[in-house]
Write a structure and sequence with these properties.
three-stranded antiparallel sheet; four-stranded antiparallel sheet; alpha+beta; 3 helices
Length: 84
């Protein structure tokens, strides 16, 4: 199950909101929110978050579970497993 750990500060709230709309599960941790899904992949699009590129590219600073399939200006795509 892929997961993303997002710093629980106002700048990242739009990313958390987008994860909620996508039906992801949230778990509050010490200063972070873990968003995860039972699906084998997480795909978030920056255009749905309306965050600036600097915030978007900082989205992974809290850590993740799984492997990065794509992370660019437009899409954050995580999948189960680890990089080969």
């Amino acid at each position: 199950m892929p997961a993303l750990y997002i710093l629980d500060i106002p700048e990242f709230a739009p990313i958390l909101h987008t994860a909620r709309i996508a039906g992801m599960t949230e778990e509050e941790l010490d200063g972070y929110v873990k968003v995860s899904t039972a699906a084998p992949e997480i795909v978030l699009e920056r255009r749905h978050t309306d965050v600036r590129p600097a915030v978007w590219f900082a989205a992974l600073t809290g850590g993740l579970e799984g492997r990065i399939v794509r992370f660019d200006f437009d899409v954050l795509h995580l999948a189960e497993g680890v990089r080969p």
